[in-house]
Every structure is written in structure tokens, then in C-alpha cells.
Amino acid sequence: MIMSRKNLDEFDDELDEELDEEDDLDEEEDEEKEVKAKKDTGPKEPKDLAISIENVVASASLDQKIDLLAIMKVFRNVEYRPKQFPGLVFRLKRPKTATLIFGSGKMVCTGAKSEKMARSAVKKVVRELKNNGIIILGKPKIVIQNIVASANLHGKIDLETAADIMENVMYEPEQFPGLIYRMGEPKVVMLLFASGKLVCTGAKHEDMVREAVEKLHDILEDYDLIYYE
Q1: Residue 188 near residue 200 (C-beta atoms within 8 A)
Q2: Which of 63, 131, 178, 218 lies deepest, with the highest CB count within 10 Å?
Q3: Buried (b) or exposed (e) across 85-102, using 16+ Cβ within 10 A?
Q4: Contact of 122 with 58, CB cutoff 8 Å
């Protein structure tokens, strides 16, 4: 049986929908496991770094022009004020994300809690556009641009001594209570606080986040810059 181009596109769309439904189920299972894990673990040990992905930023390109006015006329869950900002904001409730769409065909998705969720959100936005009459010729090329994560080292950090010993750091407590540490490998930026909490930004993959936090934790322990109560 020979399938036409139109039939192939329809088959691809149906397959994408099935995969997205599976992603939604996976996300529900992951959330349930995470809640259960928090209940079961009890008091955390210093080695439990409590890493949490707070935001994943993904860019995408459709390699075509998009009629933003047409999108605004069809969808209610969008914001478009071209005199203030050239992009249209397309919000999804599930996964809860906001995607900026530009007339050039470029897109930026924010608010996802994982790489998988970011990719799923972009594909869902494109599918909804196609299903509502917006002409989309190809599939989006998605790239993860930045992952922001938080962590808790469960110990007090001596920021003043760390500023003297560690390289590539900036610490001006009069202006900002945290120490800024630029890690060379993996290439990320860390914001460290005396409480032991931190923010990691600049990672391109989730594995980079864990690698960076674990490496930082080892550095602090090696130099006796962290102590546990």
C-alpha cells in the first residue's frame, strides 16, 4: 500500500499524539514516585543533595514564517501585543509551560521541569497549531538551552573562606548574600548560600546538574568549607 504525503503527515501526527499521551502518563507516574520517595526517605543525610529541576528552557525552529495574528484569532490561551513585544505567548496547562512563538518560526519554551517535558510541550504546541488550521510544514527542531536547578547540601558553608580559597568566584555580601562560582567543567554557574542551599544554572542536560553539584560538594568538603550540625 502506497501512502500519500498527506496520509504520512496524518500518521505522524497520530503517532506524536500517542507518544505525548504516554509522556503525560509517565509524568504522572514520576510525580507519584517522587512524592512517595519523599515520604519514605525520612531525615536526609548530607549526601542527599536534594537536587530539583526548577526550569528548563528549550528553543525550537520550524524553518518557516508563522502568522501570529491568525493564531491569536483562533486561540484564547495566548497573549500577543506586537507593539510591546514581537512574540506571541502560548500557554499550556499540561504540561504547565509557556512558549514564545515568533513570526520567523522560532520558539522558546519555559517552565518545564524536565528535558522530556520541554520537548513534549513544544511538540504539543505545534500539534495544536496544526489541528486548528495554522499551516505548519515540518517538525520543530528542539534544543535544550538552559536548565535551572536548586539543591541543598544540608550543611553550613563558610562563604568568606570559600571566596579566598576557591577560584572563579565572586562574593560581595554587601550587595548579594550568595557566592557566585563559575565552574569550568561542567560549564555551569552556581549561586551558593551560607545555609547550604544553592542554585545551578547553565546546564544543557540534567546529568550535568548532578555532576556539577556533586563536584561542588566534594570541593567544599576537601577544603573543609562545609560543616554539618
Answers
A1: yes
A2: 178
A3: eebbebebeebebbbbbb
A4: yes
Structure confidence at residue 8 as a pLDDT band (50, 70, 90): very low
Q: Which residue is listed with cell 510591546? A: 84
C-beta of residue 205 within 8 angstroms of C-beta of residue 199 = no
Does an H or E element contain 185, and which? none
What is the average per-residue pLDDT within 174-190? 97
Q: How many angstroms separate the CA atoms of 88 and 75, rounded?
A: 11
213 with 176: CB under 8 angstroms?
no
The class (CATH top level) of 153-227 is: alpha beta
- What distance in Å separates the CA atoms of residue 131 and residue 16, rounded to the nearest whole number? 12
Q: Which of 58, 80, 72, 60 is nearest to 129 (CA)?
A: 72
Round to whole Å and give the CA distance between 102 and 176: 35
> Residue 214: is its pLDDT beyond 80?
yes
Classify domain 5-147 by CATH architecture. 2-Layer Sandwich (3.30)
The whole model's pTM is what? 0.79
In the chain, ranges of CATH 3.30.310.10 domains: 5-147, 153-227
CB 13 within 8 A of CB 127: yes
Q: Please enumerate in sequence order all residues whose Cβ is within 8 A of that of 88, keeping only pairs 6 or more positions apart, or say none.
A: 68, 71, 72, 78, 79, 80, 100, 101, 102
